[in-house]
Amino acid sequence: MTAASVFVGLATLAALAGFYRLLVGPTAADRVIALDLLFAVGVVLCICAALASGSAAFLDVAIGLALVGFVGTIAWARLVEDQVSGQEDDR
Hints:
Elements: H1 3-24, H2 28-53, H3 57-90
């Protein structure tokens, strides 16, 4: 059993937990955090694929996924900040 296969198994468990929270999450924040977790799982799986195949192309995909996940999280945080500041103005 290689380290990559252990990481794939752990990433699968994390993905299942993320999918559960994405579907059941009571708030929008829970769903966004679950989506961020799924992006992180995707990065881990790309790194495991790079280790298993010896191809550096998977690392480029992992970097792209990390950037998309980061930008998505920042966009969501700005949206929540605008909504919270809008609610405070209404009071």
